[in-house]
Write the structure tokens for this entry.
Amino acid sequence: MEETVCRLSTGYEGARFEDEALEGLTDQSLLNTGKSVFISECSSELSCFYANATSLTPEKLEELRSLCIEKTYDVLFIYETWFNELSVNNIEGYECFRKDRSRERGGGVCIYASDSGSFNFTEIDNEQLNSNKIEQIWCVAESGKEKILLECMYRPKIIINSKGVSESEETHKVRNREIIKSIEMANNLVKRWLYSGLLLVGDFNYSELDWSDNLEAKILTETESAAEFVKCLSEGFLTQNVCFKTFQKEPNKLTNILDLIITEAQERMDNLEPGEVLGGKENGHLSMSWRYKLKEKVKEFGYRFRRSNFNYKKGDYIRMNKFFESINWRVDLVDKNIRDSYKKFLKIYNEACERFIPKIKIDANRRIRPPWLTKDLKSLMRRKSN
């Protein structure tokens, strides 16, 4: 089987997506629902939890309530809720933003937003960002200068209705295109500074993709939808952060990475850990917990959210090596735990980059050069035009 490797960016750089729907789009046009949770204090990170419910029964809901008491999460991303208009979904201390699957059983997504933390959560209910062809829910988490765009999405495979009839292949293709369009639009809103961060979470059901190295997406089985999805993340400079298998086929046997966490910068993610299958089932999707660091917290670790990039080709690596050799690593890292050692190393590394590697500015509206447009091809094109 042929294996295709597509490299993804781990930084936050500019890109432009042509979409007429973005013209005239304003922040106010996206916040038109009035459904929100208001908080007054500021926080340094967003504590998150994610799980596949496969029907959020009263027993599983009680399990979530216990988790919220124990861990005090700021936000819960839950998919395959199987909610309908009669479902009871309350968790004390949380507001539930949800989107149920209409007409058919199954599916559905929701975001539980805490009203006891340091964020103001507002649901986004706008057709320009929400497509009725996608099972997704959007909201905004605000704290201090941060305004983070959050999404919970479920991309099912071919849907079979209660009568056993499968949806058409064309319907599935339309859904895939709408998902790409939705991600591109959200990313563009961040690039245009309408929002300061992006956190997309969901079950994308791409079993044909291998994310075991979070810097690369390996296309194991070539499909149009998988290739377009990887291209969307790559050209948008978005990072997919889950690199461990998330589906448990049976006890101690994990298979695919179906559940993804996508951010505008890898540095935002901290303490990503797998958890038990919700409901204690032997097979199903693992739950996940993590912390999404706010920019003030990120600065403590020396990370950069860049509108410029290092010109590595012109770096003075002789002087940089001498700088590293001058560091007494044993003294600097002695008696430090892994977290503090990592923090210290990043500070030294970033200092070296700032001192010995020049920068080039990144134009947020620059066009992405197609990978097939090589220097030789550009030379031939110029010769032909002359």
Remarks:
- The radius of gyration is 22 Å.
